[in-house]
Amino acid sequence: MTSKKHYIHVTLEAGILKVILKDPETKNAMGSEMAEQLINTLNDFSKDSQSKVLMITGDKESFCSGANVRTMKANADSFISESTLDTDPWKQLEKSIKLNATEPQSDEIEIVRNITRHIFNLRKPSVAAVNGPAIGFGTGLALSCDIRLASTNAIFREAFVNVGLIPADGSCWYLPRMIGLTNSFLYQYTGEVITAKEAYRLGLVSKLTEPDTLMDEAVRLCQKLAEGPSYSMAIIKRLIQLSSDINFEESMEISGIAQGIAKKTNDHKEGVSAFLKKRKPSFNGD
User: Fold this and answer.
1) Is this structure's pTM higher than 0.85?
2) Are 271 and 194 found together in one domain?
3) Can you give the pLDDT at residue 1?
4) 165, 178, 195, 211: least surrounded by Cβ within 10 Å?
């Protein structure tokens, strides 16, 4: 009996769950098996009190080359609709939304798309260490993480338009919030490459490093996050997610309520005690 191939490599050290996408033959393309293994890992991560921070990176020279189309093609062909679309794309979209009649997707495609939803809903910090090309879904995967660090070898590319598709991995939500509408139109309309330097200039990544120092920088950041007050950090994540969809007064009201919750945590008590005693706090996430 042959053992199941492992498409990701997972380690847990000092509260940091490090996930390496590992399929060199496809430059770490996200196939259904890799996606299933990653989602199972994310589910375990969300429940494990010892796992504080998620770090995702790629094996060898690539971060993630996109969805593994070869593993999906056989099923995808059977889902091609022969129905006539409205000549106005917006009207067709409105009709489909009202009828909840999206084009059926294969299970393989849906499981890949659900990865970014899982990461969005994590109550813990996530960091993408983008070591090389992040193409198509690879860009969406990086965007779904709270923080992105990139080496100078990294590139980003919203390549869906090149095959007549749209970024259905959350990128249409994330990208405008990160780099603005005009730049989002540019890169999602054209599928042009965003170099590492340009990604840093646009604010798509928080830090740019040389290839041989990326992991050291990522681990250093993750260590700091792992030692933080995780309960309050989870609330911060939710407030930031909501910020673009509510006005200032609504944000102030919600953040005031959130502050009341944070004041009740043991981590707040520990933080105050450590400050008064001039020592480093030891947070437990409660």
Assistant:
1) yes
2) no
3) 38
4) 165
